Amino acid sequence: MNIRKFQPEDAQELADVIAETLRTTNIKDYSPEKIEDDIKNNLNAEKLIERSRWTNFYVVCDESRIIGCGAIGPYWGSEDESSLFTIFVLPGYQGRGIGRMIIETLEQDEYFLRAKRIEIPASITAVEFYRKMGYDFKNGIAEIDDEQLYRLEKFR
């Protein structure tokens, strides 16, 4: 496995990886309608390219096949806060330490190193994974928000 920066030509393959992950893994926590809406409106190839313009976006590859991703960028323009985004691992590769590899890569990135606080909008599906990685509920609020996400944070 290797991890590298996202390239615009990765967008469609990565969008397919994310769609498969949502439809296979996240379906236990979200409705098919929510998942399809996210795929269509937020996680398509065009949106991934757009996200790569303002984040440091990484892909994980097994030889030439993309199997996961993660991004880190500024938190609403803040100079001392950052946020993690778009962290996915293809279902057949989950449980092999790839998610940990993604988080560790993001935590070595310049956006992480400059930040005093890092936030992550966590899916219901992934919240316990992020908690194991040292992120905790923002302001102690352990409830999902209007976007059906938990807000987690870590202080440095």
Plain-language structure description:
The chain has 156 residues and is α+β, with helices and mostly antiparallel strands. 33% of the residues lie in helices and 29% in strands. The protein has six helices and seven strands; from the N terminus they run βαααβββααβαββ. Strands 1-2-3-4-5-7-6 form a seven-stranded mixed beta sheet, sandwiched between helices. Strand 2 and strand 3 (65-74) form a beta hairpin. The longest helix has 14 residues, at 11-24. The protein is globular.
Q: Helix/strand-derived class?
A: alpha+beta
Shape: globular
| Strand arrangement in the largest pleated sheet | 1-2-3-4-5-7-6
Q: What portion of the residues fall into strands of 2 or more residues?
A: 25-35%
Structure at a glance:
The protein is globular. The chain has helices at residues 11-24, 32-41, 45-52, 98-106, 110-114, 127-132; strands spanning 2-5, 56-62, 65-74, 81-89, 117-123, 136-137, 149-155.
Short descriptors:
156 residues; alpha+beta; 7-stranded mixed β-sheet; 6 helices; 29% strand; globular
Write the layout of secondary structure elements.
Layout (H helix, E strand, L loop, with lengths): L1 E4 L5 H14 L7 H10 L3 H8 L3 E7 L2 E10 L6 E9 L8 H9 L3 H5 L2 E7 L3 H6 L3 E2 L11 E7 L1
Parallel strand pairs: 4-5
Antiparallel strand pairs: 1-2, 2-3, 3-4, 5-7, 6-7
